[in-house]
Write a structure and sequence with these properties.
- The protein folds into three domains: about 20-125, no CATH class; about 145-255, Thrombin, subunit H (Beta Barrel); about 265-365, Elongation Factor Tu (Ef-tu), domain 3.
- It has helices spanning about 1-20, 60-65, 75-80, 105-110, 115-130, 145-150, and strands at about 30, 35, 50, 95, 140-145, 155, 165-170, 185, 200-210, 215-230, 235-245, 255, 265, 280-290, 295, 300-305, 315-320, 330-340, 345-350, 355, 360-365.
- With about 375 residues, it is of the alpha+beta class.
- Strands 6, 7, 8, 9, 10, 11 and 12 form a seven-stranded antiparallel sheet that branches.
Length: about 375
């Protein structure tokens, strides 16, 4: 019984071996002095070993002989792609061992009977030498502020300018202060005064004259919010507060809302040293949001330069401070102008090297 079992196993293994073999490639043709179904190369790159297959050779045995490990036979096949079936190699066909110049695989340097191998290696060498240019970095303008900077800080007008409309009442007669978003309010202007549904107004508090020392530059209004008219009667209108920047009170003024584009600018790097003569025009910071003394990035300010000095939205100013002996000045940061009055401008601190203070000087950044 044991003998029968052994014979069964042997027959099974032998039949498995037979059926696992692939059929030999066809048809054969005479290649110089031997028969082969393949189209072997006839020219080879310099620096490689060319071995002619002998009767009885297998890729397994040659891998052991040439590479020291029979399991590396796929490497031989990889470098000799003209062999279509690794189970069938033919005496007289060449096998290439080693690597071509510049470390490329031989299989990459040789194609099946197409062109000269040296030309293809040279083409690849030229391709490698082609320099890939880095894409050009294009500096793009960036907005110098946002809606809050434009409509929640301040407005400068002529010193004698006033506005006829005010908030006169709310839908809650007991509520005089702390009016907020979505609050219904009433204003002292209606259809007879040209007010209609859909009109928008900035809510503003009169802060009095804007001064630089004794010099009057205009009138300053603190913007506290915005409202939109829902409907109008003959001499009054009903409105809803769209947003509140800070506390809104009854009696505050209404300035017609005129949307303005937020200026954008390409911002060059801000250096802290190596500046020569002061650039014109030059002035100083005369007012800051919430009247704080020390300021950093994002703070809104007013400078004493305006359209009269050629300032326009988008103008950039460098902020600096002189040392006590006035022999050296320190660059503190950068201001971008958002809106311009005749003799003053509203801006935003965009960058800070050191703390900026009320009264620090500014100079025009050259383009």
């Amino acid at each position: 019984m044991y003998l029968a079992f052994r014979l069964t196993v042997i027959c099974f293994l032998f039949s498995s071996f037979l059926f696992s073999q692939t059929a030999p490639p066809k048809p054969l043709h005479l290649e110089k002095d031997h028969w082969t179904p393949y189209t072997p190369p006839t020219e080879f790159p310099e620096g490689v070993e060319v071995y002619i297959i002998q009767k009885g050779d297998t890729l397994w045995d040659l891998a052991q002989k040439k590479l020291g490990n029979p399991y590396l036979w796929p490497q031989i096949w990889e470098n000799n792609k003209y062999i279509q079936d690794a189970h069938w190699i033919y005496p007289g066909d060449p096998l290439i061992f080693g690597k071509a110049v510049e470390g490329e695989k031989i299989s990459e340097a040789i194609t099946e009977g197409e062109g000269k191998e040296e030309e293809k290696v040279e083409e690849r060498r030229e391709e490698k030498e082609v320099k890939v240019e880095e894409p050009e970095v294009i500096a793009r303008p960036v907005p110098l502020g946002n809606d809050a900077d434009m409509y929640c800080f301040a407005k400068i007008t002529e010193k004698d300018e006033s506005f006829p409309f005010k908030i006169i009442e709310t839908d809650d007669p007991d509520l005089r202060y702390n009016l907020t978003e979505a609050q219904i309010v009433y204003i002292n202007g209606g259809s007879a005064e040209g007010v209609k549904a859909g009109d928008s107004f900035l809510i503003a508090r009169d802060e009095g004259l804007l001064k630089d020392g004794k010099d009057v530059l205009g009138r300053l209004w603190t913007l506290t919010g915005k409202l939109t008219v829902l409907c109008s009667q003959e001499h009054t209108s009903t409105a809803r507060i769209d947003y509140a920047c800070q506390t809104i009170e009854r009696g505050e003024n209404l300035i017609p809302y005129e949307p303005a584009p937020i200026p954008a600018k390409v911002l060059p790097p801000l250096e802290a040293t190596c500046y020569g003569e002061v650039q014109e025009p030059h002035g100083k910071i005369i007012y800051s949001k919430d009247e704080v003394i020390s300021m950093f990035n994002g703070h809104n300010v007013i400078i004493n330069l305006g359209a009269k000095e050629g300032v326009e939205p988008g103008t950039l100013f460098r902020v600096y401070r002189w040392m006590p002996d006035h022999s050296l000045r320190i660059v503190l940061g950068r201001i971008g102008v958002l809106s311009v009055h005749n003799r003053a401008s509203i801006g935003k601190i965009l960058e800070v090297n050191k703390e900026i203070q009320l009264g620090d000087e500014v100079e025009l950044e050259k383009k």
